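pasting for ref
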Amino acid sequence: MRLQLMPYGLLTVLFRHKGAVAATFLAVVLCGAGYLIFATPKYESVAELIVRFGDRSIPDVNRKPVSEMTPSDRREIVLSNAEILKSHDLERAVVEAVGLGVVYPEIVDDPPTRWTPMDEAVKTFDQNLSVDVGAQNNVISVSFLHPDKELAPKVLQKLIALYVARETTVYQNPQRDFLAGEVKQAAGRLDKAQGSLQQFKRQWHITDYDQEVQDLLKQRGDVDTNFQTARANLEQAKQRKADLAKLLRTIPTTVAAPSSEKYRSIDDAETRLADLQAKRSQLLATYNANSPALATVEAGLATAQAEAKARRGQLKSRGLSNVNTVYQTVQTDFVRASADVQGNTEPVQILQAQLKGIDDRLRDLQSNRGTFDDLAREREIAETTYKTLSAQYEDARVKESLNERQISPATIISQPTLPYRTARPRKLITALACMFAATLLATGMALGLEALDDRFATAAQVAYALDLPVLAAFDRSEGREGRRLIAMEGFS
């Protein structure tokens, strides 16, 4: 029957396999001691950088409000800068700048066979370089390990210098030449759009399209009001003229004269003649026939007789009617109405012509509205593009100057330190780690050997396996007979 490993004390297991435990423990401890003795000591140079954000980073020529970045955005930028510090190209550039033979002369003396010495140097450089980013801040800690304590800070200083140049290239690549060409093309498109729009305005005599349409609509409203008023006045004058003409046809031109008026002139002449005759009779009684007074009365009498005779002649030839004053009044009103018709006809014609001109102008503007809007929109787009590209070009020009002076958002807050003692290997930590690892491996070795051993070692194992009480237990015998009995088949 296959025996199973039963639970019992850990110390018992360790003592049963004390030889293997001791061998494993000593092997691990000796390996750690050998590492501490033969490992090449390395010195660590440390520097710190801070990545600035917003208005604390670099000058902004756009003069636009800077949007506040979220903590995640800041964290991503800091991590991106850390990745630039750890980039393969930057490490290679540092080794090339300092010199492969200076940084790692052992690689030059014993080059690898599977790849180039530079690849091996970059690999070693990456293993010795550490870039640490704080959990809640924007500070980057950079450390570099090297056997030469004088060379370590120099290499780290060169790494930071090349990083600043690379960071400005990555984040602030101005593309000045490209933007200069784009600005030139945008200026050409703007000139062309402005020329087309100005030509269209000259062709249709337009200064301000919307303002002109608004003025024309207002003017048309005023002219239309005046036109309706003038046309109403004209129609009213025509109607009055027609009514007066109809009335004139019904009114007689003359009316019969009254009798008192008919004989008044002859009565007056005869009355005067009778008065002169009476006066002549009175004078004859007083004066002689040749007196001047009598001669005067005779002359007046002759004149009165002639006038009375003439009045009688006129009475025979005079009609029996007079001019109708009503007809004359209506005829005067008719003449005035005709003059009003003539006077109102000309304003109606003028206002009608003005309305037609305004309608024609509005029709022309409306028919060309689409073309005007297209040209204006094209000019506006070209102007906006030109302004945007011009601002970007100025920004690129300033950023190019910043790059030439290596002005970057990343600033050194702690220069590479000059180490005064070795940083690798760490003797105390390595020794404690070796002791801990040796203990774990030795314990694991004992447990593994115990798991592979199918023999009973204690009375508790026998009782557990057989589910029977143990009556007696004997000390372990080292003789062959005891071992033979334990190994017998059928023993359970």
